[in-house]
């Protein structure tokens, strides 16, 4: 697919479909009239007769137009202009790609100006069009062997046109930047939709290395022997039940900016979570291939920050294991000594994410970071609390929490804060060791995060994102088919793109 931006011209390459947006109650189709008066007149007649009102998602289209550059013209209803927000515009663009799909339109021309509103200005509109065009057209077809099973083809070419000649060059760069972000999200989806028998920890590491080579990043992979020597026993214990070795992937970008401080990103990379000996029920267990979403978001974000050439020093860490029941799996009751020296009693082998993250978080101390952000499909409880629409956010620095939450609001990856009050720490204290890896069954998202907190280097601003609910679409969504959706990539890119020293509290 290609998304491009151009000034509106009378001539131009032929498209299959011309699309303009229409706000409810809009009287004057002036811009459209200039392009084709026949279509504008037909539309006005339909509007006058209330056959087309411009409700969100409503469509008026015609094949009998005077426009020579496309056989069909279409007006897409956008609802009331004053109610349009980025959230609803994203949905409308998703609808548009669906309409183009259904018509087998390969090249679509869009009058960008007709989608602009007070709340969503030109640059934001161009960004949304670009991102959602790519995201909505995404399909994972790797394993379909028969052509007839292929889903309808998405448009190959979305051309945004504007009458505002003075905006062309800046909007063109917005489109270019948004394409980089969108392609990164698709990359993350592709990796994440790969099943557990393919995308195991060594394979994930080789994908990270390949990406690093492409984007000119540093990438180091610690294997079994090194992890053992270093005492990363959380990672090792979880992986004990797997025949495949664990890895700790470490990617680094922007060393030349180190003087301004280092930011660490950490992501949970459980390539499959059976639950271990505390095995999960079989219903829905196939979805546990997306337990690597956090790691993939981090790996992808590392490639993206290099692509965007951000002026920051960033280290991405992705501990990756398979939580399985073969080999010599850990048992409930096992006590392990973690990388930072604390001891943990494993009450439940299904609470494995926190064990591998604990080691990776303590290892961050090596980089003396000014901030740590981790992303993990950590708790089913978070999924229950927020559904698939909101990501849980918790942390030790309110400024950092606010900055991440604001970024999420901006890109449509919403986060909502839960408290980390001391009292919640009581129930992860253990009888025979320092800590235990589960709480008392209540407030599971909070107690899991309290556990992580024990391993975060002292006085380091830290934010944890629980993406258990948000990283996966259980059904087709306007911008993503059922499956992995790449949650976190846009959020991390947004936080890092607008990074400022104001994002963390002064010590
Ligand atoms: N990977 C799961 C969390 C999860 C659940 C992610 C559903 C996505 C959808 C995690 O490893 C897990 O199993 N957590 C347990 C913790 C419990 C044993 C304390 C949970 O949430 O049930
Ligand atoms: Mn688990
Ligand atoms: Zn898990």
Q: How would you characterize the overall build of this protein?
A:
The structure is a single chain. The strands form 4 sheets. Strands 7, 8, 9, 10, 11, 14, 15, 16 and 18 form a 9-stranded mixed β-sheet that branches. The chain contains 14 helices and 20 strands. It folds into 2 domains: 2-162, 3-Layer(aba) Sandwich (Leucine Aminopeptidase, subunit E, domain 1); 189-503, Aminopeptidase (3-Layer(aba) Sandwich), CATH 3.40.630. The longest helix is centred in the middle third of the chain and has 26 residues, at 168-193. By secondary structure, the chain is of the alpha/beta class. The mean pLDDT is 96. The protein binds ligand BES, manganese (II) ion (MN) and zinc ion (ZN). Zinc ion (ZN) binds at residues 270, 273, 291, 352-353.
Question: What keyword list fits this structure?
Answer:
507 residues; alpha/beta; Leucine Aminopeptidase, subunit E, domain 1; Aminopeptidase; 2 domains; nine-stranded mixed sheet; six-stranded mixed sheet; 20 strands; 19% strand; elongated; binds ligand BES; binds manganese (II) ion; binds zinc ion
């Amino acid at each position: 697919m290609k998304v491009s931006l151009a000034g509106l011209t009378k001539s131009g390459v032929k498209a299959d479909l011309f699309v303009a947006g229409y706000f409810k109650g809009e009287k004057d189709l002036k811009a459209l009239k200039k392009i084709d008066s026949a279509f504008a007149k037909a539309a006005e007649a339909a509007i006058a007769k209330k056959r087309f009102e411009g409700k969100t998602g409503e469509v008026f289209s015609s094949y009998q137009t005077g426009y020579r550059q496309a056989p069909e013209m279409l007006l897409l209803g956008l609802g009331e202009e004053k109610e349009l927000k980025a959230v609803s515009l994203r949905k409308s663009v998703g609808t548009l790609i669906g309409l183009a799909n259904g018509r087998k339109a390969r090249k679509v021309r869009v009058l960008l100006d007709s989608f602009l509103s007070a709340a969503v200005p030109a640059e934001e509109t161009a960004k949304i069009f670009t991102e959602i065009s790519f995201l909505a057209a995404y399909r994972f077809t790797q394993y379909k062997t028969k052509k007839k099973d292929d889903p309808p083809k998405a448009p190959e070419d979305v051309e945004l046109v504007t009458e505002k000649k003075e905006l062309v060059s800046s909007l063109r760069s917005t489109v270019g930047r948004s394409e980089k972000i969108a392609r990164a999200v698709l990359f993350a989806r592709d990796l994440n939709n790969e099943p557990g028998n393919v995308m195991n920890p060594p394979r994930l590491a080789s994908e990270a290395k390949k990406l690093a080579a492409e984007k000119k990043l540093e990438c180091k992979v610690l294997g079994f022997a090194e992890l053992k020597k270093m005492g990363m026993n959380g990672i090792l214990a979880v992986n004990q039940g797997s025949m495949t070795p664990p890895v700790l992937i470490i990617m680094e970008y922007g060393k030349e900016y180190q003087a301004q401080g280092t930011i660490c990103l950490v992501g949970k990379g459980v390539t499959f979570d059976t639950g271990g000996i505390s095995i999960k029920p079989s219903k829905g267990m196939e979805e546990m291939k997306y337990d690597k979403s956090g790691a993939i978001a981090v790996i992808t974000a590392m490639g993206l920050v290099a692509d965007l050439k951000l002026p920051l020093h960033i280290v991405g860490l992705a501990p990756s294991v398979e939580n399985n029941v073969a080999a010599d799996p850990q048992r409930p009751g096992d006590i392990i000594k973690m990388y930072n020296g604390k001891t943990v009693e494993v009450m439940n082998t299904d609470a494995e994410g926190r064990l591998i993250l604990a080691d990776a978080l303590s290892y961050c101390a090596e980089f003396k970071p000014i901030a740590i952000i981790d992303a993990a499909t950590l708790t089913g409880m978070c999924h229950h609390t927020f559904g698939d629409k909101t990501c849980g956010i918790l942390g030790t620095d309110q400024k950092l929490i606010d900055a991440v939450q604001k970024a999420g609001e901006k890109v449509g990856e919403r986060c909502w804060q839960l408290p980390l009050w001391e009292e919640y720490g009581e129930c992860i204290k253990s009888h025979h060791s320092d800590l235990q890896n589960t709480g008392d069954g209540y407030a599971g998202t909070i107690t899991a995060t309290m556990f992580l907190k024990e391993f975060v280097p002292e006085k380091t601003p830290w934010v944890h994102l629980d993406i258990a609910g948000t990283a996966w679409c259980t059904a087709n969504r306007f911008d993503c088919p059922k499956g992995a959706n790449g949650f976190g990539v846009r959020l991390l890119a947004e936080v890092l793109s607008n990074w400022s020293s104001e994002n963390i509290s002064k010590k």
